[in-house]
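debug: dumping io for the single-chain case to check the tokenizer round-trip. Nothing else runs in this session.
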Amino acid sequence: MAQNTSLINPEILLNASTADFDALAIRVFQYQYKYNPVYQLFCHALKTDPSDVSQITQIPFLPVSFFKSHSILTTDNGSEHNASPDNDKIALVFESSGTTGETPSRHYIADADIYEKSLLRAYNQFYGASQQYAILALLPSYLERKNASLVHMAKTLIEHSGHPDNGFYINEWEQLHQTLTRLEKAGQKTLLLGVTFALLDFADAYPMELKHTIVMETGGMKGRREELTRSEVHDILKRQFHLDHIHSEYGMTELLSQAYAKADGVFRSTNTMKVLVRDINDPLDVNDTGSGCINIIDLANIHSCSFIATDDVGNISPDGTFEVFGRMDHSALRGCSLMAV
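debug: decoded output
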């Protein structure tokens, strides 16, 4: 169910360009400062005056951990920041896995249409229309729990692709191998989207030559296999599948936009997303190049919060491409995070 943005038409945000991105981001900041109670309190704690914000590096970025402890919603109905969201105003809920005993992040999606449009336009921007592809999603652990954003992403792409061989897989490796073999023989463009540990397991069991298939890893190794760097993972997959490149997708429960890497883990953001870095020792020192903790502006998050300080660390090049090195450990995060409101 769409909410009244009054100041901003979501369609304008979804069609953001490099030329107008920063101006749109500042407009979104002003809107969310006014209508997002949690974010407003956070800005107050930092003594941020919206009238003083003229550059995106001056915008406060909400720590991603707030999605575990608060309902992050931008709404003009005056709801309290600790109130449970009204079910009739929520279209989707994305929920992180978390570890045993850990509170999961919950991202309340007020307008599913914005999510779908941002996803499909982004995919089209990088890969062309999804209808060209057979889409095979190897997502064990994600399929076994509710409200995983990655599963919803794959489901949306599969529905819009419409190919009869589309499908989800948990551990049906023989069936997946047979399907890939048939699609390869037919010369069908195919996307094999998979969580990292599952792709490695499948590649070990069923090495094969893929000429018409994009293999895209989405991360996900912790606790399932020996920890490997992205380059090590890609080297294994390239060898097992006889590919020159492995693709990657970067997204998270708290975002609606994605970034994609077509080779070597070098990501490019979609048009609704921009990545910045904050200094590990001074989280208010934000820049558009260099290394540090990753901050993300996601214009598609108009109904939650578009300014997220993640727990990831990476590097941004002058051309706007970026790499993700991994999560910061707890000791480093103390310097990389902001105090809770």
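debug: round-trip ok. The chain has one domain: 1-263.
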